[in-house]
Amino acid sequence: MPREVDPSLNEKQFVTQALEENLRLDGREFDQYRPLELTFGEQYGVADVTLGKTRILAKATAEVTVPYADRPLDGIFTIATELSPMTSPSFEVNRPTETEVLLSRLLEKTVRRSGALDTESLCLVAGQKCWSVRVDVHALSHDGNLTDAACLAVVAALRHFRKPDTSMDAGVLTVYTPAEREPVPLSWLHSPFCVTWSFFGEEGETAVLDATWLEEQVRVGSCTVSLNRHGEICQIAKLGGTPVNAVVLLQCTGVALAKVKEFDELVDRRLTEDLKRRDKGGFMAELRAENDR
Amino acid sequence: MPLDTSTYNLALLRVDGRRWNELRRVHAQIRTQAAADGSSYLEMGHTKVMCVVTGPTEPGPRRGGAAAGGAGGGGVGSGGAGGKAEIVVGIVIAGFSSVDRKRYGRGDKRTLELASTVSNALAASLHTNLFPHSQINISLHVLSQDGSLLAALINAATLACVDAGIPMTDYVAACTAGSTSTYAANDEGADPLLDLNHQEEQELPGLTVATLGNSDRVAVLVCESRVQISRLEGMLAVGVDGCKQMREILDRVVREKGVRMIQEGTVEKGVGLGDIDMD
């Protein structure tokens, strides 16, 4: 198993000393993200997030399957993460590293367990047929802060996604192709986003947002907070690392809320832009089969 | 079965009869396994955990993905290469530990996450830089689960590391805290709760906190449920306070065992230990 090469002592010292002098290598403020870009693909449910040099692609798909026996009224919703060797030589195919396990758990807790997607709406025939929605997360390039980028990509992909329209008629389930009926969006309840803080210094007193890969290798601890714009915490994960004062952590969640609101606006803006682009003849409103809630 | 929280407001008593700021009964022992370098047994209410520490030892052949020590493996430090000892944590959750019998496979992500958390939390306190090119194996066995599992695992691992005599800054003591209201309800009257049991953990928002010794410095903060941001401060404050109580309990266990060992003559009373209160 090839190991990730640690940065040299000189590099480590350079980064930490610069941070002590309130400087980051790329000249950002401590609470500033790298340029964040979100684009959608030609297909529904493909989101491409670029955060500096980090790039994540998420693709949502849906198919009709049999629901789990113990949850006959719920659809199936899975998030699959894959960190391939093209991201970093230390990742191997079919052998999840600790990074990947923690990333997938985090996305699971943030998006799935917080009930962002209404799984009951994915049920077609109780106990027999349901939608299985799956999001595949691919890290295309890794320059730190995979978590925040991946979470944004998953949320954007799911909000952009349209599943085929269906109807039930006399016990016969019909799934319509996009040509027959315009696909319908998922029943989306709230949009949670991750914000990761990295801590530096002897007592973790320097808190930095959106660490690059080099900063991630040097940091003494990190804390990922997931929130939605309503100020509900969906998950907090500070899994060990140098102990940080409780007050600092509280301040971090406060700043995270502001960032989450920015993310939410970005996703909303890009979604409306994409919708306009697709709505060429202006027929989208008539084609829509769903009702306004 | 949903937890009936409606009665809480009447008598301010929780389902198991505790008040909001009470810990469950904590029973802990150290040096439970004679052959191990360090071992402990910890009960927090009905959550029961055993821990065995081996090491610091020479690292074995490189683990190829599959953790040698059981279901969950998590390691920090860079083993042979770096100047620090690697802490390898293996967690085995017994099939009979919860109400419904369940098999926990080797690749269970939740177990792996727990293992990695315990390993990273201890790495912050243990002086791993004193043991370069070596490995500390922590093997945790969950015998019974009734909420606050992560907290119990961290506490048990801390005790076992103390028993193994690995130099550390201070105890890493952990406990859980919760809130009496659901995430949607924005009522101001919601009380924070200390040390959640399984039933409360299922129904109410809660978090696990681990602090370093008597300080306010938080090593682990895990929240897995939806909760209003305004509620966090109260929960965190109660959690940190609970950790301080937990530290006292752990410290007492260690001291009592030390006194007993000296009385039994297992160990010589060391020089410089004269000022320890031996009542």
From TrEMBL, chain A:
One cellular component term from this protein's GO annotations in UniProt: ribosome
GO biological process, one term: exonucleolytic trimming to generate mature 3'-end of 5.8S rRNA from tricistronic rRNA transcript (SSU-rRNA, 5.8S rRNA, LSU-rRNA)
Keyword presence, Transferase: no
Database matches in Gene3D superfamilies: GHMP Kinase, N-terminal domain
Residues covered by the Exoribonuclease phosphorolytic domain: 32-164, 191-257
Superkingdom of the organism of origin: Eukaryota
InterPro entries, per the entry: ExoRNase_PH_dom1, ExoRNase_PH_dom2, ExoRNase_PH_dom2_sf, Exosome_comp_Rrp42_subfam, PNPase/RNase_PH_dom_sf, Ribosomal_Su5_D2-typ_SF, Rrp45
GO molecular function ontology, one term from the record: mRNA 3'-UTR AU-rich region binding
Subcellular location: Cytoplasm; Nucleus, Nucleolus
CDD domains: RNase_PH_RRP45
Family according to the record: Belongs to the RNase PH family.
Protein name: Exosome complex component RRP45
Automatic annotation (TrEMBL), chain B:
Gene Ontology annotations for the cellular component aspect, listed alphabetically: cytoplasmic exosome (RNase complex); nuclear exosome (RNase complex); nucleolus
Residues of the Exoribonuclease phosphorolytic domain: 22-167, 170-240
Record-level Gene Ontology MF annotations: RNA binding
Compositionally biased spans, kind Gly residues: 62-75
One Gene Ontology biological process: nuclear mRNA surveillance
InterPro entries: ExoRNase_PH_dom1, ExoRNase_PH_dom2, ExoRNase_PH_dom2_sf, PNPase/RNase_PH_dom_sf, Ribosomal_Su5_D2-typ_SF, RNase_PH
Start and end residues of each stretch annotated as Disordered: 56-75
Range of residues in the leader sequence: none
Alphabetical list of PANTHER family matching this protein: EXOSOME COMPLEX COMPONENT (PTHR11953), EXOSOME COMPLEX COMPONENT RRP41 (PTHR11953:SF0)
Similarity remark: Belongs to the RNase PH family.
Protein name: 3' exoribonuclease family, domain 1-domain-containing protein
Organism listed in the record: Dichotomopilus funicola
